[in-house]
Write a structure and sequence with these properties.
By secondary structure, the chain is mostly helical. Helices cover 51% and strands 12% of the residues. It has one domain. It is globular, with a radius of gyration of 10 Å.
Length: 51
């Protein structure tokens, strides 16, 4: 959470759930957010981001 300056536990859960589902489903997902820190974290983790 501190690494990407996420604002709370829900942002961390949102990001980790997206990463885990993408890995298990073996499909590329898009992370949708209007939060700048969550957007940057998603991009840093290799996710496509909308928002």
């Amino acid at each position: 959470m501190d690494r990407y300056r996420l604002r709370g536990h829900l942002d961390a859960i949102h990001l980790s759930t997206c990463l885990l589902y993408q890995e298990r489903a073996n499909k590329k997902l898009v992370l949708c957010t209007h939060d700048e820190a969550l957007r940057k974290a998603g991009l840093a983790m290799g996710l496509a981001v909308l928002g």
